[in-house]
């Protein structure tokens, strides 16, 4: 089944060129089926690139998914045309009285910034609190996972001395958990963050199900018992060249970044990198849509209530 996005969204041409089933709004309006309503709060600077990456993963599902894009505030963007933001992104005030099946909160380049110094922190807290009453399942990605842990568990910010960057091996801890169905015992996933998510720290301070970890990168995937809050500390949505672009950017700014681990062939940045995590990225998102969203959400979103959800 396709994802439904605005007819003129730039990502639609990219996805169609990759033979991904994208349904325009005009065609979807003729179908008598209830699509899943998924909201994406895009905190990344390059919004067109990021929305395309997430839409690619959301498209690999038998479910029809109705996507809406949300921006955090009205500040002008240096990397995304204002016309694009005005045409395709909504303000929170326009959706706050509605219910959604799923919410994705992306990462943000704020790894070295304290929460209280994030200009939109209070607004982000408002949206995360709102999601408790209006969203079936929320997916927190990378920096958003750290922000979500602060909100839900009051965990202080933990920052690594050096940036974690590269593609790391992970181990599945609960192979029969719905989010891990179909996963190999070990798999690869990219990370790009300063945040520290050690296994001991989360085990000692939360009641989360720890689903996948890396010996080098710490916890990769964790979830609340009711599957309404999913924390992904890496970037399964990244394209093959995303880590390379970040490395070149940091290098050009004089930051002397480490070469991303297990990424370039022969560990040489002159060699073209390739994606070794794509299959598990798609599987993670299709599992989330099916088992955490579709299987739990009420058919009539107008009757959404936290009482609909019980812990397993």
From TrEMBL:
**Source domain of life:** Bacteria
Q: Localized where?
A: Cytoplasm
Kindly list the residues the record flags as site (Important for acyl-CoA specificity): 111
Tell me the Gene Ontology biological-process terms attached to this UniProt entry: L-methionine biosynthetic process from homoserine via O-succinyl-L-homoserine and cystathionine
CDD domains from the entry? GATase1_HTS (cd03131)
**Short name of any one Pfam family annotated for the protein:** HTS
Keyword Nucleotide-binding among UniProt keywords: no
What is the documented function of this protein?
Transfers a succinyl group from succinyl-CoA to L-homoserine, forming succinyl-L-homoserine.
State the name under which the record lists this protein: Homoserine O-succinyltransferase
Q: Where does this protein come from, organism-wise?
A: Vibrio caribbeanicus ATCC BAA-2122
């Amino acid at each position: 089944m396709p994802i439904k996005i605005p007819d003129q969204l730039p990502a639609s041409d990219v996805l169609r060129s990759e033979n991904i089933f994208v349904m325009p709004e005009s065609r979807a309006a003729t179908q008598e089926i209830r699509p899943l309503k998924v909201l994406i709060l895009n905190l990344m600077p390059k919004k067109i690139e990021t929305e395309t990456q997430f839409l690619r993963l959301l498209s690999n599902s038998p479910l029809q998914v109705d996507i809406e894009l949300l921006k955090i505030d009205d500040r002008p963007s240096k990397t995304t045309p204002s016309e694009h933001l005005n045409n395709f992104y909504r303000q929170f005030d326009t959706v706050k009285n509605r219910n959604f099946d799923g919410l994705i909160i992306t990462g943000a380049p704020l790894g070295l910034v304290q929460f209280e110094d994030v200009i939109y922190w209070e607004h982000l807290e408002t949206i995360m609190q709102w999601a408790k009453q209006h969203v079936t399942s929320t997916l927190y990605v990378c920096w958003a996972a750290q922000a979500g842990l602060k909100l839900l568990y009051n965990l202080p910010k933990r920052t690594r001395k050096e940036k974690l960057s590269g593609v790391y091996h992970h181990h599945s801890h609960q192979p029969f958990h719905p989010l891990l169905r179909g996963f190999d015992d070990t798999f690869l996933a990219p990370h790009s963050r300063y945040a520290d998510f050690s296994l001991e720290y989360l085990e000692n301070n939360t009641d989360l199900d720890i689903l996948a970890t890396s010996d080098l990168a710490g916890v990769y995937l964790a979830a609340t018992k009711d599957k309404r809050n999913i924390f992904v500390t890496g970037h399964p949505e990244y394209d093959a060249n995303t880590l390379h672009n970040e490395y070149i950017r940091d290098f050009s700014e004089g930051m002397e970044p480490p070469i991303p681990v297990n990424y370039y062939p022969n560990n040489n940045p002159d060699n073209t990198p390739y994606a070794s995590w794509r299959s598990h990225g798609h599987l993670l998102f299709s599992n989330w849509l099916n088992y955490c969203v579709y299987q739990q959400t009420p058919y009539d979103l107008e009757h959404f209530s936290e009482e609909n959800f019980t812990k397993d």
